[in-house]
Amino acid sequence: MRGKLITLEGIDGSGKSTVAEKLQKNPEIKAFKPVFTREPTRGTLTGNVVEKAIQSDTDQLAELFLFTADHAEHLAKLIKPALEKGKIVISDRYSDSRYAYQGMTLKTHLENPLEWVKDLHRGWTIVPDLTFLFDIRPEISIERCGKRGEQSKFEKLEFLRGVREIFLKLAANDPERFIVIDASHSPKYIEKEVVKKIMEFLSRN
Ligand SMILES: Nc1ncnc2c1ncn2[C@@H]1O[C@H](COP(=O)(O)OP(=O)(O)OP(=O)(O)O)[C@@H](O)[C@H]1O
Ligand SMILES: Cc1cn([C@H]2C[C@H](O)[C@@H](COP(=O)(O)O)O2)c(=O)[nH]c1=O
Prior knowledge:
Blueprint: E1 4-10, H1 16-25, H2 27-30, E2 35-38, H3 45-54, H4 60-84, E3 88-92, H5 95-105, H6 113-121, E4 130-135, H7 138-148, H8 157-173, E5 178-182, H9 187-204
Parallel strand pairs: 1-3, 1-4, 2-3, 4-5
Helix pairs in contact: 1-9, 3-4, 4-5, 5-6, 5-8
This protein binds adenosine-5'-triphosphate (ATP) and ligand LXEULUCI.
């Protein structure tokens, strides 16, 4: 039987990586021996190029294609083989990050960037079985990122407001797949909520 793909999404500083770390240590989740991964990928040719691109003034369309190439590589080398082996895969960011972030960066290039970017993925990507959207006001997430001590070029209030809006739209349009989590709660509360929802999902599927 094909495995299950669970993704963690949200704006910068919404707490996805913190949740991913907690899930890796959680006994209920560990029992399923999930494969933990992320986008942009780490330590790969495509992931390294993306890393460089987002640290510089790369053209927005070029950036979309680099993120998408990284996604193709991620699918081919890790996601598909793991799902074919029946594994549960948990990815910190995935295609919805492209729809939301590049849906914003490409606003000046294209008439309907969200649909255009979604179309680009159609026919070859794998749609997640379950997606958690960690929803938070950018004012809070930016403050959190400040404390973390690094700043990406996407961590701007107006920009993240737009990204958040697209994420919420994606979730509203696909309520079967998305679970929206109020990410302003404590890490402990969020971990409990996410574990509960994953266990419910796995018991049904
Ligand atoms: N629920 C929470 N409450 C308060 N602070 C949090 C919470 N979750 C995470 N943090 C802190 O906020 C910062 C950002 O968290 P984290 O790196 O998990 O976010 P992220 O969504 O993975 O961000 P990015 O996508 O930008 O890498 C970290 O310093 C982390 O310790
Ligand atoms: C996958 C993906 C990511 N981004 C953005 C989101 C972040 O600002 C950075 C890097 O991600 P990280 O989780 O903070 O390491 O890149 C994007 O714009 N498009 C994407 O597809």
